[in-house]
Amino acid sequence: MAKKRTIEEINEKIRSGRAVVLTAEQVSAMGRELTPSEIVEKVDVVTTGTFGPMCSSGMFINFGHSDPPMRMEKLTMNNVPVFGGIAAVDAYIGATETALPHDQYGGAHVIEELIAGKDVLLQATAKGTDCYPRTEIKTLINRERVNEMIMFNPRNAYQNYNVAVNSTSKMKYTYMGTLLPSFGNATFSTSGELSPLLNDPEMRTIGIGTRIFFGGATGYVAWHGTQFNTGKPVNDHGVPVGNSATLALIGNAKEMDTRFIKAAYFEKYGVSIFVGVGIPIPVLDEDMARRVMIRNSQIETNVIDYGNPANGVLGRADYQSLFSGEITLKGRKIRTAPLSSVKVAREIAAILREEIMSGRFMLTEPVELFRKTTGLNSLQIRL
Amino acid sequence: MKSRRFVLTFPPEATGEPITYNLIRKFDIMVNIVKADVSPGQVGHLVMEMTAPSKVLKEGMEYMKQQNVECVPIDRKITYSEDLCIHCGACSAVCFAGALTMNRKTAELEFEPEKCVMCELCLTACPLKLFSIDLG
After folding, report:
1. How high is the pLDDT of residue B15?
2. Is residue A43 within 8 Å of residue A283, measured between CB atoms?
3. Could you give the angle at the alpha carbon of B66 between the alpha carbons of B64 and B68, nearest 5°?
4. Computed from CA positions of residues A137, A142, A148, A154, in that sequence, does the dihedral angle turn out positive or negative?
5. What is the rounded distance in angstroms from the CA atom of residue A122 to the CA atom of residue A134?
6. A55 is annotated as an active-site residue
7. Of A22, A168, A383, B136, whose Cβ has the fewest other Cβ atoms within 10 Å?
8. How many CB atoms lie within 10 A of CB B13?
9. Tens digit of pLDDT for each residue in B53-90?
10. Residue B128 in contact with partner chain A when CB distance is under 8 A
11. Shortest Cα distance from B114 to chain A (angstroms)?
């Protein structure tokens, strides 16, 4: 009978130091020699990792009350506007918000500086109320002096993403980096066979409440991510082609590490943030073994013309070719380059593996699995 | 014979002198101009690959020095903060010259200054702004 195990059985093995934990790259390499039934016999957990720019990120912060207290309304941190439309001294720092006119510095930089323990200038104004009389404040805050720093990212860890090319005769500056004219380059942004949601494409083990590595700290899957879409076609290896599922993630930013949270500026596009995410995948049965054995050559995605979106999907590329430095599109060879760091993704998968093997990181049963969706709404102009 | 890339900086008064011509005719140095930004009366820059036996190259450089032309190996003109690099690869996307590439095994960025053409695209393409060019 085919081998099956539960997450609790795996946790028991972790507690007793008997769990076999491998990174997704290690198990992909093993998959060349072994069958899924052999993998499920040998491996309990597979660790994944990704470290790419993830714009839909930000941090809730609670500053603590001043004396006299203040119901902060308009706020900036290091001159970057932050959202204060929540309770008196709560705010949300959006990663992509910028300090105009210096749009190369933004919320992502403020977040990184706070995580690094640096002082940040807080300025706020308010109309003043009977219970919150203060109308102005200007002070320095830092990680140790604020009450909470809660990273909450509405859309991270995209399951697969487009390859970007540019068919036009002009340089295009995009969130997929600088695209040279006339198909001069192609950029892509996942860690391929190391990527969390590509190792559990149907999200059988990842759901609400899943414990994860998040920016160097322990975090959790809070919800499905925004623009979550399980309606994308899958290829022969069961992997969605193009951008599909996403995750909303939450974690304690006070415990994060700037090695895994890094502010970025993409030329003539704006500020973004590199976020490090690692998710352990329990090898529950042969089906999960088959999933975690996935190799770069078996993962494919769409090539999209970011110079002229009307051209739609130009072709398909697999990650083995993308990582090789060259793809062929309609007979034309195009140089490729990643935007997400496989080097740091490997570090994340390795750290998570160590944490699990040493018994410091236990696996979680999802509180709830995600529902399947059929597609996304587009924004109609109705006026 | 070794080929090396240099950045030549011309003072305004040197731009009338046929320096490249003399490097070829007098010293028999094989030159390949990679990038040129030279205008009369202004400080000019030339990115140039020079191929010659090291003794000859030294003589050529001595000649340039006499003409007040600064000649510096390209790797001293373009630098990046390697210790801060996250190896994302965004710079390698724009480096059509192939000086910045991703090592397939280590997934690390590799920089070969000898292939650099000083196009300066990496300066803006790096999301962490780790590259800098010093043209004096």
Report:
1. 57
2. yes
3. 70
4. positive
5. 15
6. no
7. A383
8. 10
9. 999 999 999 999 999 999 999 988 898 999 999 999 99
10. yes
11. 20
- Name the nearest CA neighbour of B119 among B98, B88, B136: B98
All domains of chain B in start order, with CATH: 2-74 (3.30.70.260), 78-133 (3.30.70.20)
Domain limits, chain A: 7-54+152-357, 64-146
Residue B89 to residue A325, Cβ atoms within 8 A:
no
Q: What is the pLDDT of residue B40?
A: 79
Which residues does chain B have with pLDDT short of 70? Answer: 14-16, 136
B121-B126-B128-B129 Cα dihedral, nearest 10 degrees: -10
Task: Determine whether the interchain pair B127/A337 forms a contact, defined as Cβ–Cβ distance below 8 Å.
Answer: no
- The answer to whether B131 faces chain A, any CB pair under 8 Å, is no
Collapsing DSSP to helix, strand or coil, B85 comes out as coil
CA A224 from centre of chain? 12
Could you tell me the end-to-end alpha-carbon distance of chain B, in angstroms, rounded to an integer? 29
Sort out which chain A residues have CB atoms less than 8 A from B127's CB and list them. Answer: 53, 177, 264-266, 272, 274
Cross-chain Cβ contact B93/A339 below 8 Å:
yes
pLDDT for position B42: 86
- The span from the CA of A167 to the CA of A229, in Å, is 27
pLDDT below 50 — which residues of chain A?
Answer: none
- Residue A83 φ/ψ region, left for φ over 0, alpha for ψ in the -120 to 50 degree band, beta for the rest: beta
What single-letter amino acid sits at A334?
I
Q: Cα(B117)–Cα(B34) distance, rounded to whole angstroms?
A: 6
